Amino acid sequence: MKIRRAKDYADMSRKAANIISAQIILKPCARIGLATGSTPIGAYQQLIDWYRKDDLDFAEVVTYNLDEYRGLAHDDPQSYHYFMRKNLFDHVNIDLANTHVPDGSNLDAEAACAEYDAMVKAEGYMDLQLLGIGNNGHIGFNEPDEVFSKGTHCVDLTESTIQANSRLFDRPEDVPRQAYTMGVQTIMHARSILVIANGDAKAQAVYDMCFGPVTPRVPASILQLHTNCTVIADEAALALCPL
Ligand code: PGA
C-alpha cells in the first residue's frame, strides 16, 4: 500500500485526478470503477477541467460505479445515477451507454445484483478502482461484518452510515436503509486501486485501513493485501498514521 500525503482537499483531488487521467491516457478504453460521496467531487471537477482544456478524452472510457441505493429511480436527485451525471458524466464526452451504476430501481435485489456482477465479470473487472472510505471503514457500501463480501449484493446500511449520509437528505428518515454494492472480492479484482480520504472524521478509518489488522470489521483493511493500492489522504485524515 502506498500512502501519499496531500496538503488539503484541493491537493488530494488534483493528485487523484492525475492518477485517473494517467490511466485514461495510457489506455483510452480503460474500465474505471467510480465512487460517489463528497470525497471524489473535487477530483471529478479537475477531470472536467482537463477535458474542457482538451487534455483528456472520455470517448472510449467505460465506468462502473460501486453502489446505489435500493429503491431510488435513476432520476431521483438522491440516487447515485443522478450524482454521477451531475458531477461528471454530463460534463465530459463519455458515452452514457458505457457508464454503469447498479440498478436501484429494480427492487428484485437478487436479479439486480446478479446482472451487475455478470457485467463486471464479463468486462474482466476494473483497470482502476477509485474508492472513498466510510467513517466506519466501509468501502462501497460494504459495511463492517464477520466476513468479507464477494460479489454485488444487497446490504442493510448501518446506523453510522445512515447518520453520515443524512446530511445529504432533507430528513434523516428519507435516507434509504438498503443499497446494492459491489462486493469486496470484486473490488480486489481491480488491477489498481486508488483510495482518497480527507478530514479528521476519517482519521481513525484511515489508520485502521493502513495499519490495523486485516479484518472484515474494517472492510478497507483488506486493501493492505492488494498489490497495487495507493491511498491519497490529506493531513487531517492522516493525523493518526505513524508516517
Ligand atoms: P464521503 O463518503 O466521501 O461522503 O465521505 C465516503 C464513503 O462513505 O465511502
Q: Could you explain the architecture of this structure?
A:
The protein has 243 residues and is α/β, with parallel strands linked by helices. The protein has a single domain (2-234), classed as Rossmann fold (3-Layer(aba) Sandwich). Helix content is 30%, strand content 17%. The protein is built from 7 helices and 10 strands. A 7-stranded parallel β-sheet has the order 1-10-9-6-2-3-5, with helices on both faces. Helix 1 (9-26) packs across helix 2. The longest helix has 18 residues, at 9-26. The protein is globular. It starts with a strand and ends in a 9-residue tail after the last strand. It binds 2-phosphoglycolic acid. The site of 2-phosphoglycolic acid has 6 residues, from loops.
So how many helices? 7
Bound molecules: 2-phosphoglycolic acid
| Cα-atom radius of gyration | 17 Å
What is the CATH first-level class name?
Alpha Beta
| Sequence of secondary-structure elements | EHEHEEHEHEEHEHEHE
> What's the end-to-end separation, in Å?
13 Å
Low-confidence parts: none
Major β-sheet profile: 7 strands, parallel
Q: Strands of the biggest beta sheet: in what spatial order?
A: 1-10-9-6-2-3-5
**Mean of pLDDT:** 96
Tell me the count of domains.
Answer: 1
